[in-house]
Amino acid sequence: xxxxxxxELYKIITPEKVEKFEQIxxxxxxxxxxxxxxxxxxxxxxxxxxxxxxxxxxxxxxxEKGNTFNVNREIAMGAGKWVDNHxxxxxxxxxxKCINTLKEKGYRxxxxxxxxxxxxxxxxxxxxxxxxxxxxxxSGLSETALDMSDEFVKIPMYGFTESxxxxxxxxxxxxxxxxxxxxxxxxxxxxxxxDQTELKIKWCKNIxxxxxxxxxxxxxxxxxxxx
Length: 227
Description:
By secondary structure, this protein is of the alpha/beta class.
């Protein structure tokens, strides 16, 4: 039924969009996901979301405690339509809620921060699903995030400045891990066919007017044709 629904949706969007959705969905992954904690500058938040889309990372997890995750449309360039954003706004324990949710789904929690036991990002093992955590430029990740992390990574630096801008750190990390995934043999890290179908249905609905009504109408017709 879901494949049939997608075929019907494809009939009402442009062939160019259909071709684009098919190409991009086949390259999407949830093997790697990104978590940002309490970002306060909207240009950084927007740039991280845009990088997730550019590197084919489908999910962005947003921990909001004190700072609201605001998106600058000019910087994000519409990435919010294509990347799934998951927000954690619990007043007391949003970080715990986010990390526990990811751990329950089988993710290793990787904190991006200088640490006594850290490794460089290019040496990270990518065999298991992983969630990369990024904190603010001023204070980094919270103690809760660090305590709940399984591993720590850093980006090699060769200058006087102590750290990269958060959006730059995220982009460099995503690029490095994406390259490692593409080089990994016999690792099933792309979305399944079923997940791709659901994603393409969602993307179709994102560009339609009254998408829920359209979906209900198409499903009704499909059921009538089957009976």
